[in-house]
Fold these 2 entries.
Entry 1:
Amino acid sequence: MSILGTRVLRTEDPGFLSTGAVYTDDVQDERLAGACYVHFVRSTVAHAKINSIDTSAAKEAEGVVAVYTAADLAADGLNPLKPMAPFMNQAMLQPLLASDTVRFVGEPVAAVVTEQVYQGEDALELVDVDYEFLPAVVNMNDALSGEKGLLFPDAGTNVICTFGDSSATNPDLFDGCEVVVSETIQNTRVAPAPMETRAAAAAWGEDGRLTAWIPNQGAQGTKAALVRALGVEPNVVRLITPDVGGGFGAKFGIDPESVVTCWIAKQLGRPARWSETRMENLLGMPHGRAQQHKVTIGGMKDGTVLAYRIEILQDCGAYPKAGAFLPSLTILMTPGPYNIPRAESWSWSVVTNTTPVGAYRGAGRPEAAAAIDRAMDLFADAAGVDPAEVRRKNLLPKFSEPHKTAFGAVYDSGDYVTGLEKALAAADYEGLLAEQAKRRANGDTLQLGIGLASYVEITGAGAEAGGPNENGTVEVHPDGTATVLTGTSPHGQGHQTVWAMLVSNELGIPIDKITVKWGDTDLIPKGGGTGGSRSLQLGGAAVQQASRELLDVARERAAASLEIAQSDLEFNVDTSAFSVKGDPDKSMPLSSLAETERLFVNSVFSQPGATFPFGTHVAVVEVDTETGKVNLRRVVTVDDAGTVINPLLAEGQRHGGIAQGAAQAFLEEVVYDDDGNPLTATFADYPFLSATEVPSFELVDMATPTSYNPLGAKGIGEAGSIGATPAVQNAVIDAVSHLGVTHIDMPTSPQRVWRAINAVNGSKEA
Amino acid sequence: MTQIKLTVNGGARSDEVEPRLLLIHYLRETLGLRAANVGCDTTSCGACTVLLDGESVKSCTVLAVQANDRSVTTTEGLVAEDGTMSAVQEAFRENHGLQCGFCTPGMVMAATSLLAENPHPTEQEVREGLEGNFCRCTGYHNIVQSVLGAAEKLSSTGSSATAESSTEVNA
């Protein structure tokens, strides 16, 4: 029986559960012996000119080795980071340490290096920065208008880039519609907040090479960014990826602090380490989402949607990171799984005096799903048609040949209506409606809300070389063990186990004899890392392909050794050996073929395009109409990601995604005051989801395999966070819709819900 | 510097420490027990949870000197000499109660303490008992399953979640 599709327990877990994983801050390595510790003085204001930085007192403090500012970096020829893509405004440069201007609270201004960790905390306080305040541009609408000033006067605008063409709008888009509804929707700024914060450890060898340990989601991309920032040749840098304590999109690429830590190690000629506090993490690590949507949706009174428009404003924070790019993915996924005859969208990406925005679980697609599924409910409410019926009417019918949307996305395969019906049945939608009607009729304080979201998303996009591909290496050793090198990079996903399952299934080597390695750029120079739910369908498929090709090489060797035709050999997976057809006693173990010559294959797997997982989420909430408090009672989901290799791990991915998606809808939000001061800079203030705020989740199985890879697998890592947000938000609004409420922005906090109820009552307290 | 004497994972320790040294840093840097992690600065996340005299504490807000004359248990200490993990650790593995692993050592200690206090918790009691331990990966679903699974296994074998630390409390 194949091991694939079975609930194999993770082989990495015993270590993680006992002595713990080895994260960057845990790394003990002789190259790091005698390391000094780097700490960052961070801006306490959102926007200001720096008149002067006095480091003299800090330099005198106990244990201080050195203090560096932007002037020191410039003197050594280090340049600011350029925007990540050429189409972004090139005048918007990010200094590694702020030079003449600070643009967000938390921006690094100076680096203090100490002998011991605790000495840094003391010395940081002694660096005196003289700020001259500038007006802070905090709201993205103010950034777009430019009326409150520019972050980069040389750029002449706060707009980093645009996607789509607002001037090409069709004035007749909603002609013929009986029902047209518009709403401005905030897709909240949230903090990825992986449990492991950012860190770096750096050592320069006598050979002039840098070894850097940095938590990341793709060592090759992080190395490339580090090489550019340091201005060195690629072969100078070796990046090693220790265990990584969660990424969620926020650990792609490199941040200024890691670059500066590597640079300091070179300046001082001794290893250097940096590890940030949670407050630094909540201020310095890129945030996610942060979009504003102006949506208009129109159609017929029977629930048929005819037209949809979405104008997207992306708040990118102070510097152009991946956030500036996110709206292009939102636009690509504009219509979601729905068949909408006329749709249009465009976007602006703007800078504000806030923490930069980057990728966060879903990265642009949850925003598209949230917009269209909120719009569907706005339309359903206005048309007086049940939200499930509106979805039934407008979902694309089942297709097995690729379907191209007006926005250029090519959906590989889909059966959206079945997904919807399965979710509705599992949730007992009819029963929920009856319970809701009863509570409404009774005027109960606790009202029931049911929310739906039917989504499709894009997974498995490109690698370094562009296009959906990834490489994998498999080597079989004479002792019967095997080593796998992969270009993807887990941070909780379980590649050690699943890649071993894939190899074991082909080669018959037990999974506990297979070692999987990733994230060391000397060992694995190419790779696209883990993000965009790409790992299994590309990295996993590459490992499977390499295993099969390795078997071809082995068969050739075995045939030559036995002096028979290759066609006379058959490989027996159960014994991991070749045997001669018709002569079962004559066999040759696979491992024996590695005895005289190394037996390994590196293989690149490419798939014809991205894949498009889909599903439906049903959320059930109770809302206290007197306090506005939301209790999330149930989340029922269908998440169809094609063939599942390890259901235990796939379910884990769904659980985590659902929780993060739900948290955005009803709980989590990064908040700034009008001057750009962060109000959610600790875990005491940022309402990080806890165990008491979510129920156990109800997962429904559905698998529509893709033909794009031999595994039949699509991505599963982000599905939960894409469906859950609109489902939960829709449920909260549904709970109070009979009172006349049509929309409540995320997160649906007690205050927002209470105000929305009071607003329709005409109360002044709203 | 201050002299402290304490028991860590069953072994006696005596060290000179800076009075302001946090227990988590004493465990990690002085003793090299790096399973427990620092996840926040505000006693909110519980990644640093260890047992102090058998009860869970967040070791980022306990000074090493406060552990003087007391007994500390970490996940390293839950593993038997033959390498067998505790029922709670094993249950986390069986139920896929961990992904990236960063919250895990703290979560395991919080769960161990919870089951020592309440050997037969309901799902709601597990959720309330772990409210002070954050996880970003699992959505808590499989963590709750792990703790319920461990409770079941412990009750069927009639053993305690903290065999080692509870004897220490009694000692």
Entry 2:
Amino acid sequence: MEAVAAIPPFERFYAERKDEVFGYLARLLGRQAAEDAFQETFLRALRAYGKLEHGRHLRAWVFTIATRVAVDERRRTTPVGEPTEVPVHDERPAFAELEHLADRLPPTERAAVVLRYGYDLSYDDIGAALGSSAEAARAAASSGVRRLRRKETS
Amino acid sequence: MTTVPDHVDRRFRDQAAAACMLDVAYDFADSPIGTLLVAASERGVCRISFDPEPERELAALAKAFGVRVLRSPGPVEGVRRELDEYFEGSRKEFDLRVDLTPLPDFQRAVLEELVRVPFGHVDTYGALALRIGKPRAARAVGGALNRNPIPIVVPCHRIVGASGSLVGYAGGLERKQALLGLEGALLPG
């Protein structure tokens, strides 16, 4: 039991997660901006790492940090207007077909959509990543998807 | 799958060390007696390992010093340089701080005394026991040396049996012989 929750040496955690975190940040911010966001993400993770009480959910945890870094960065650099009402669709999106449009979404919706459909995180984890709830994460993801579908057809 | 570019990875490893956020920084060093893992805490060199198995080493370092263990060449650059100079024959004394803090008192006392045995000299387990005030602890001294976390820099290779035999070395007797040979301290026979 203890072994499952043990906190691995930071090198292990970093080596295991660095590529997908960089990929995630590159999807949210573009490769150039992802380089700085990557530093910031893992420096924040490292700062908190010594105070962790167990090694569970480390993947969701680092995605949380990356999401906050990326959302802050996007808010800083690309102000997005008020979201507009969009019609509701219930079908699951083919994320790969829509992703090229995702950079036009508000930052939290974009993060929710990418975490859900690109990285398969649960809504609980996405809610934590966005500093809100699972319900809010689900709403952000579906609103993001609706917006993407609209963009695709417009 | 996207992989993080090398320069970005390197920058993170450098920044983590520069910001003093690591419990232990480590890297690998080539030497004539094989690849070494070299690690340092903020207090000094804390590990030199022969034939390193990173998985086990990292777990041991995390347990002794804290989980923020990261491969980062900056903090161990000085150690690597001094080791290079030692193996080239241009350095007879290490000018490095060592971190023995996680060790039990007895072992620390042995290793602190051991550091005084100079380049090119050998001493015996019994003599070392005597010098830490435990004349009958020669065998325990042997055990303490066998678990020396910082071989080469803390020169346990310079301690031999009363008969002059090499006795043992955690890194293998061949390495002990090689180090004593390098220092010109090989015993006759």
